[in-house]
Amino acid sequence: MAALAFGHKNPDTDTVVSALAAADLKTKTGTETKAVTLGECTPETVFVLEKFGIAKPEIVSSVAGQDVVIVDTTDLAQLPDDIAEANVLAIFDHHKLGDLTTSSPLEMWVGPVGCSATMIYKAYKASNVEIPKDLAGAMLCALLSDTVMFKSVTCTEEDKAVAADLAKIAGVSDMMALGMEMFKVKSAVDGATASELVFRDYKDFDMSGKKVGIGQLEVVDLSMLDARKAELAEEIKKVKADGRHSVFLLLTDIMKEGSQMLIVSDDASVVEKAFGVAGDAEVWLEGVMSRKKQVVPNFEKAFSAL
Amino acid sequence: MAALAFGHKNPDTDTVVSALAAADLKTKTGTETKAVTLGECTPETVFVLEKFGIAKPEIVSSVAGQDVVIVDTTDLAQLPDDIAEANVLAIFDHHKLGDLTTSSPLEMWVGPVGCSATMIYKAYKASNVEIPKDLAGAMLCALLSDTVMFKSVTCTEEDKAVAADLAKIAGVSDMMALGMEMFKVKSAVDGATASELVFRDYKDFDMSGKKVGIGQLEVVDLSMLDARKAELAEEIKKVKADGRHSVFLLLTDIMKEGSQMLIVSDDASVVEKAFGVAGDAEVWLEGVMSRKKQVVPNFEKAFSAL
């Protein structure tokens, strides 16, 4: 039985593409591995896969008894419920270290870089395995997506060098044009329900014993969301009602380089503790574009001090 | 303030040497880092440091508020009590993934290899930093120690290739002679108290909510311990009395390639569940030399089924 490679729930482009690349690399280095996802691909990911002619991975929910390769997370809340019954062979990630544990030694490629695809690129190089042209294109998109076209504070010089090499392998001559095309697809809000928008890139966290949901919507211009904001605020109230202490929705303007954050919380003072800006229903967070590096660490500190 | 590099409590040679090497590498790549330990060095480690003219690191117990580099473990029980208040920059390890979590992204070099020093060797190579001659000799000893001179099941082809290169850098012409010299120091039991022998390489684990201690003594010939066995059995009873469900002491014969395991447990049936060999006070485990790869995973499964 082939090993399974997958990333987090509510998969984004980096998670899906990194699972595909990790499966390719592991298979070529002797461990037959198949990429799967834990949920539906976003429109952005569908665009990327179609652009480079890659089939959409199938969706699984149970992994008990399987060998697995995990990408883009080490948080139990973002993995299948029966992950403890799987045998973790390898992890490729660029986030803080979460609460996943394993019962055997494993391989981990983890670094403070802009996306998981960058870590897999490094593993390809270290294993002297060539990156296929189609995957290189998709990995480039994963990198452009996760780093918001190099603008995120999580983006490193290494990410930029990796992007340049991936573009070369993929035969992409204008990567910024590719990025804008992709972000236009990602930003599209017409035709999507409020629930689809909230869950487009949504994660649950355990913060000092409290369940906290944080979603993020990246748009090329915040005004695109003006007509939907009331609806989104209603929607996160519903999400909160399902046993959560707080739900935050970041509406990130990738051109203005900041985020409007919609708030629903049992104790909204946590927002001021975390960011020094008070607000009951929403606040503007200047320069805040990265959930992982800017929002989650601040909230974790603030929740631990509640 | 310099960052601190350290490994687990009850430091062995791989932990101490890997902390020294990680500190050297981090310092040379731009993050001033100082190696420390969480406890006294063993006679084996003192022999290695003296052999290659390296100063013994100082001992620390608190790391709150510091930047830290962790080697050779990700288990909270094996780290300083205030590790949650430190900022983890990097981890170099070759064990299963433990329960340490971080609040920021970090660098992790983790692989299923014979020792942490092998992972740091790989990081040196990837960073194009030269390994100093003295550290190369000490890293070779860490590798020979942790892989029991390449005999442990944890030892990989990669470890052997790394050992050959480290020997070249260090100018060691006969690495097996160096290994035997080191193991003779490690095996010495004369003049050591029973407590010193039990804690020479001892670790506590949380297994399905039960506190379990596992020590290991490696000797070149088990008969060296005949005169001390009754005393060691008494000693682990004392250790167990301090709130533990079980304490196991592996007396590993590196030439016969197996371990005599001394047992004191609230439920010794766990030994048969784990290894298929029954015994109340002791059992011989043929071919069992690795606590990490053979003993801990078997006990974790057995304890979860108690």
Automatic annotation (TrEMBL), chains A, B:
EC identifiers of the protein: 3.6.1.1
Enzyme class of the recorded protein, top EC level: hydrolase
SMART domains, alphabetized: DHHA2
Gene Ontology, cellular component aspect: cytoplasm
Highest taxon in the source lineage: Bacteria
Keywords: Hydrolase, Manganese, Metal-binding
Keyword Manganese: yes
DHHA2 domain location: 179-303
GO molecular function annotations of the record: inorganic diphosphate phosphatase activity; metal ion binding
Reactions the enzyme catalyzes: diphosphate + H2O = 2 phosphate + H(+)
NCBIfam families recorded: PRK05427.1 (NF003877)
Name listed for the protein in its UniProt record: inorganic diphosphatase
Organism this protein belongs to: Oceanidesulfovibrio marinus
